[in-house]
Design brief:
With 512 residues, this protein is mostly helical. Helix content is 81%, strand content 0%.
Length: 512
């Protein structure tokens, strides 16, 4: 009898050892997968460091460019704002380009074009040469701005997609902060040299972007669209923590790219034709995706970033060093609070953070307007500069907690695979148009209605964004990209939705 007990105990010990080995193997795979996806998100987000650095560094560089090249205030507005306007062409072209050559090589193209533009600006000797460089940089910005968050969304596991898709915004903010710091460090050089050094340093990240191309994989969803299913499976196995989940995701992608998007269903129409004459669900997606991109900019974030020295000068602050030091404080605040969004976006959800963000920015923008108005009326005295800095910092903090990163997350999540790249490109184009309009008109509008009046307008736009979030932005946390499509369907439309659970399970069985 004791022999049987001993034999049973040995069997139980063997089972326990096998379970322990399997658990350790799964734990090792989980850690390896998380590190790999994290590294991919970091590498591709380096593209956006360039974009952020350009915005941050121009806030200080324009002071010295104007002095060195003797350009007018109108030329400054055109120089600063044209980058955003021109980038919309890159954004629109980027959607189609990424469908043809892939997400990965579109990012490479973006980096190359942007860096050529920066190099031309660095050695420019006239306003015309500066404009040529800005035009090239704008096209590169358009490519990079739309493809980076889309790529990250397509390679990320559902559970961490929000966090990873926010990385581009982190790196934009890091770039802005580095631009501010560069302004402060090199401001004491000669006026002919300092702004060139400030701009030229932006070329350095290209080295890391070149290295990233040898590390990151192609998007599995793009690979499925090109019928390269085996390659897509390998990528999904690298980016998902267990094989079953990877196979389920592959089945969903195949269903979305094949059964749901065949030529017969869409009557052989090209994607751009369907975007021009969208179905009701697609129309709702476009309104949400383009709308949130526009609201991100019409609340004045680019004006606060690029023209912060001008804002603080109107608040009574004097001296270039003090003005540039204050902009560093804005950059530190913006970069710090984006980290809060990173930790909360997949835990709290997109919509709660958007509420906090839009309501907070409304209050702070109104506060900036009030503080500058009181200064003009002589009612704030020495407190006005302090109040202005605090409210501007509060504004960028609330912006970074919500609508700053979540705008890009939502617009890269909500579109079906067939439309995703080109629809996201339209959203990015809307973002760039609004950015350009704000950047190019801020100084002129401020002269017409005062800086305080301009911030009251921004506060009104921000209040409208609260209503927009309430009415049109769905919660996408915890849902796969293929499942999110159903959030925009009418109940009647959902009956015909091509991403049904039973269809997915049937395809999983085929795949496995």
């Amino acid at each position: 009898m004791s022999g049987y007990k001993r034999m049973g105990s040995e069997v139980e010990d063997d089972d326990f050892d096998d379970d322990l080995v399997r658990y350790q193997r799964q734990l090792k795979r989980r850690k390896s997968t998380r590190r790999y996806v994290f590294a991919c998100a970091v590498f591709v987000s380096l593209n956006t460091v360039l974009l952020g650095y350009d915005g941050g560094v121009m806030s200080g560089a324009i002071i010295f460019i104007q002095e060195d090249l003797r350009i007018t205030e109108v030329q400054i507005e055109v120089l600063v704002g044209c980058l955003s306007i021109i980038s919309l062409f890159g954004s629109i072209a980027g959607g189609r380009t990424s469908d043809i050559i892939g997400r990965k090589w579109t990012m490479a193209l973006a980096a190359v074009v942007f860096q050529v533009g920066v190099a031309v600006m660095t050695f420019a000797g006239s306003f015309r040469a500066l404009m040529i460089g800005r035009l090239l940089a704008g096209v590169g910005m358009g490519f990079g701005g739309m493809i980076t968050p889309l790529y990250i969304a397509e390679i990320s596991p559902t559970i961490s997609r929000g966090t990873l898709s926010s990385f581009p915004e982190i790196f934009v903010n890091l770039g802005i902060l580095l631009g501010y710091v560069s302004n402060y460090i090199f401001a004491d050089l000669s006026v002919h040299i300092n702004w060139r050094v400030m701009l030229g340093i932006g070329i350095l990240p290209s080295v890391f972007i070149g290295f990233a191309l040898f590390v990151i994989p192609e998007s599995p969803r793009w690979l499925v669209m090109k019928n390269r299913v085996d390659e897509a499976r390998l990528v999904l196995l690298k980016t998902h923590e267990d094989e079953r989940e990877a196979e389920e995701r592959l089945a969903e992608i195949q269903l979305a790219a094949g059964t749901g998007n065949d030529a017969r269903k869409y009557g052989g129409k090209a994607v751009w034709q369907e975007l021009l004459c969208p179905s009701p669900p697609l129309r709702r997606m476009l309104i949400t995706g383009i709308g949130i991109q526009c609201f991100q900019q019409i609340t004045g974030i680019d004006a606060a970033v690029i023209y912060s020295p001008e804002i603080f000068k109107n608040a009574g602050m004097k001296g270039n060093s003090n003005l540039l030091a204050a902009t560093v404080a804005v950059g530190v605040t913006k970069t710090s609070f984006i980290l809060v969004a990173i930790f909360l976006i997949d835990k709290v959800g997109r919509k709660p953070l958007l509420y906090v963000s839009t309501i907070g920015t409304t209050v702070c923008l109104f506060g900036v307007g009030v503080s500058l108005y009181l200064l003009k009326e002589g009612g704030a005295g020495a407190a006005a500069p302090v109040l202005a800095i605090l409210f501007v910092c509060g504004y960028v903090a609330f912006f970074s907690v919500g609508i700053g990163p979540i705008c890009w997350v939502v617009s890269s999540e909500i579109f079906p695979l067939r439309y995703r790249a080109q629809a996201a490109a339209l959203g990015a184009a809307g973002n760039r148009v609004c950015s350009g309009l704000i950047s190019m008109s801020f100084l002129s509008v401020s002269r017409a209605i005062t800086v305080a009046g301009t911030f009251f307008v921004f506060a009104t736009m921000s209040a409208a964004s609260v209503a927009f979030v309430y009415a049109l932005v769905p919660e996408t946390r915890g849902k796969s990209l293929e499942q999110i499509e159903s959030l925009f369907q009418n109940p009647r439309d959902c009956e015909g939705s091509h991403v049904k659970m039973e269809d997915t399970e049937r395809l999983v069985e085929k795949v496995t």
